[in-house]
């Protein structure tokens, strides 16, 4: 059965339960699941023959398959997608685990890179997979304040501060020496004229400035654009040993594939184009047919950020045989914490 024709109504209530059981058992054991095992461990009130019929029906729908060496079934990629889309429930972490995670963030130094290291450590431990996070990137750079400081002769230091917290410094070599009081006057002119403007607003205001102030503003504008174009140089990873211990990555080529994914923040950015909002969680199973490098790999990804001005990515990368409910829950919770942390820094500006 094609994926676009499947819905929750395609399965009977018992077939949904059988599919859920097969996936839960296979995720725990990595072994095919048979009808005898289901009847022996779960009270479904029907015979093994009835369960065999349900397994066969689920296989005809493309949700299960069976290795040729075993009579038991294992989920297909379509089966996992159906499970995530229709059958998952109770994605909230237990309150005591939420408090433990919050405590780890409170104990971490109040720096973004330390929070991101905490994020990946929490995600890797909770999911038993690899975790990744990118440093927040400024979506729109806004002029807050600048200062021109005389150094020596014609050398002047330009210090630019954005409302998002970025600080840029650049040495200017002037045509002639200028006294500090002249530089301060130009700084005040630019702060009065440009304060609160984004790069487009600064560009539009250039023609209204005095000649030297215009030259300085052009340098500041280039710095603002570089901030906006930055890809988030810091990329954090954790849990490589955990994910490589999964039987799916025992083969060398499979291990190489997931290591390549973990080393490529650009791929995560490409995937995350469908994630405009902080807090949403995106699940990509075996590349969903769009990313060959993600074959046999699942990605659970969320964007975190503050006030539509700064955002980054964090998530979990592991085998398709993943504990999706728990992984989605912890990715969502850590993403919310990171968004709260950034709101504390940037939200009030």
Automatic annotation (TrEMBL):
<dbReference type="InterPro" id="IPR002571">
    <property type="entry name" value="HrcA"/>
</dbReference>
<dbReference type="GO" id="GO:0003677">
    <property type="term" value="F:DNA binding"/>
</dbReference>
<feature type="domain" description="Heat-inducible transcription repressor HrcA C-terminal">
    <location>
        <begin position="113"/>
        <end position="328"/>
    </location>
</feature>
<dbReference type="Pfam" id="PF08220">
    <property type="entry name" value="HTH_DeoR"/>
</dbReference>
<comment type="function">
    <text>Negative regulator of class I heat shock genes (grpE-dnaK-dnaJ and groELS operons). Prevents heat-shock induction of these operons.</text>
</comment>
<dbReference type="Pfam" id="PF01628">
    <property type="entry name" value="HrcA"/>
</dbReference>
<keyword id="KW-0804">Transcription</keyword>
<keyword id="KW-0805">Transcription regulation</keyword>
<protein>
    <recommendedName>
        <fullName>Heat-inducible transcription repressor HrcA</fullName>
    </recommendedName>
</protein>
<dbReference type="GO" id="GO:0045892">
    <property type="term" value="P:negative regulation of DNA-templated transcription"/>
</dbReference>
<dbReference type="InterPro" id="IPR001034">
    <property type="entry name" value="DeoR_HTH"/>
</dbReference>
<dbReference type="InterPro" id="IPR036390">
    <property type="entry name" value="WH_DNA-bd_sf"/>
</dbReference>
<comment type="similarity">
    <text>Belongs to the HrcA family.</text>
</comment>
<keyword id="KW-0346">Stress response</keyword>
<keyword id="KW-0678">Repressor</keyword>
<dbReference type="InterPro" id="IPR029016">
    <property type="entry name" value="GAF-like_dom_sf"/>
</dbReference>
<dbReference type="GO" id="GO:0003700">
    <property type="term" value="F:DNA-binding transcription factor activity"/>
</dbReference>
<dbReference type="InterPro" id="IPR023120">
    <property type="entry name" value="WHTH_transcript_rep_HrcA_IDD"/>
</dbReference>
<feature type="domain" description="HTH deoR-type">
    <location>
        <begin position="44"/>
        <end position="71"/>
    </location>
</feature>
<dbReference type="InterPro" id="IPR021153">
    <property type="entry name" value="HrcA_C"/>
</dbReference>
<dbReference type="InterPro" id="IPR036388">
    <property type="entry name" value="WH-like_DNA-bd_sf"/>
</dbReference>
